[in-house]
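TL;DR need structure tokens for one chain.
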Amino acid sequence: MSSDIILIGPIGSGKSTVGSLLATQMGLPQRSMDEYRWNYYKEIGYDEELAKHKRETEGFWGIYQYWKPFEAHAVERFLSEHKNCVIDFGAGHSVYEDNVLFQRVQQVLASYSNIVLLLPSSDLNESVKILNERNEYVPDGNLNINEYFVRHPSNYKIAKFTVYTKAKTPNETCSEILQLVGAHNNFAVLERN
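>> reply
TL;DR here they are.
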């Protein structure tokens, strides 16, 4: 099993901030999917003009659907290249409607025991409200992206741990993750012996 820590969760849930703190505490590099994804997308034919057209004509949801196969590919490639680090995924890299894409991502994540879902609150309605405030969500008649990511089952199927960040500093969240991961890894070692 890989000892890397992977942080998943909605936009604005604190993945990059907490990832940076974890990397410092653990003496490991931090790797953010958002820094690498575009190069991986291009490997399998990402068309910037088509993406721009979809964004202009279909809005965010049009481009989001276009991204999905590229996101699954990026997860596979990213994890094949980055080891012994703290990883923060983009919000969409752990959420899939298409079962084939989701199974590909589940398969590549199967050897990772430290996948942490960050959410503001255990109350999903409260999580959506907090994220709407952070991301300045303005209702436009379309599906609320914060609600979509909070309620989608993919993250819950992938995550090994869920950490709620409401009323905690990023440092407190970091400490909680280190305790959870440390206890889990120690238990796994004991089970093997």
